[in-house]
Amino acid sequence: MINLETPRKFRPFIKQAHQVADEFLRANSRKYDLAEHAYPKELDLLASLVDGMGDSGQGQGAGAAAVRRDDETTDKASKVKNGTNMSSVLSVIEMCWADVGLLLSMPRQGLGNSAIASVASDEQLERFKGTWASMAITEPSFGSDSAAITTTAVKDGDAYVLNGEKIFVTAGERSDSVVVWATLDKKLGRAAIKSFLVPKDLPGIRVERLEHKLGIRSSDTAVIVLDDCRVPAENLLGNPEIDTKQGFAGAMATFDNTRPLVAGMAVGCARAALEDTRELLEQAGVVIDYDRPVQSQSYAAATFISMEADWEAALLMTLEAAWLADNRKPNSMEASMAKAKAGRVGNAITLRCVELAGTLGYSEHELIEKWSRDSKILDIFEGTQQIQQLIVARRLLNLTSSQLR
User: Fold this and answer.
1) Of 235, 259, 285, which residue constitutes the final position of a domain?
2) How far apart are CA 404 and CA 130, in angstroms?
3) What is the pLDDT of residues 81-90, one digit of tens each?
4) Which of these, 106, 130, 128, lies nearest to 116 by C-alpha position?
5) Where do the H-state alpha helices sit in 223-327?
6) Catalytic positions, please?
7) Are 265 and 319 in contact (CB under 8 A)?
8) Among residues 127, 152, 173, which one ends one of the domains?
């Protein structure tokens, strides 16, 4: 039976993660928001600390790179498991309570690392250990429809030759490798889409430019071009065979693990805004009373209570998606539900907090205005709000992508 209380074994780790987030990320949040594209050198020490925690077992699967479904099966007689997916989501929430952009800039903790953890073989996991991987899916011709990928991968002897252009690649300049999604055969549609680990020191891959953005400014977002880039065949992640019966399911397995992480980012960012707004309201004399009906309280108090309820729902849905992954249960629909709910709620809460905080919320005296900018991307990348709702509708109605567009 699922229990969405924070697992007891993770509580010391979460306390430690919060302290680290406060001292490393929150302390440098405004500095790197104003210095867009400057590398946050403070993260090197933090990344080494996270690596050490993971290697020693103290981290309980700390960081975005830790998500993976263990090989052991879970049946009715098995113990309920809280594993790396749950601990990763909990650590991401704490880090994004501090700063989303800085978390996305942390070495070896990119979404590409999560993709490797999700689909790579055990041999590949060992071989790619220590790499910092960004993830390249989106192209100029499409946004959230990953099945529309036009980047090609053509087998040539013991390598694949990749050609195409990828946009909005998070940590695309700073990372040392890129997980590139490409098609082996356009005629075979979704089933032919595979992901490749492409080291950036290979000939034929280059960073074309960096984007200037509304939020997460401390994180670099790049355009990457692949021009006859020869990638070793063994760098194709997971199974190289094209299974038309499985279709796009193999590639989508990555999202089942990464979407709860993005939901956790939104939950952490929104929590930060709620905490600061509550403090400002109390300083202004606004009383938030949970023992009185909201209709008998001030507009500010009633609005705050409503936001807290929405936030709690997003948190619980996020934890459920992670718990299902840890216990080897299907979670595609729940991952999309969590991403849709948390992404929308996170952005709505931070914007409403700006309103409630008034001039303080709109100025750089507080981080609330920054969190409102940062939170918008969490409703967009890893699949937009609309795409998540479409996925959920297909699952509920048992319809295919061709039947419900």
Assistant:
1) 235
2) 41
3) 888 899 999 9
4) 128
5) 249-283, 299-326
6) 382
7) no
8) 127
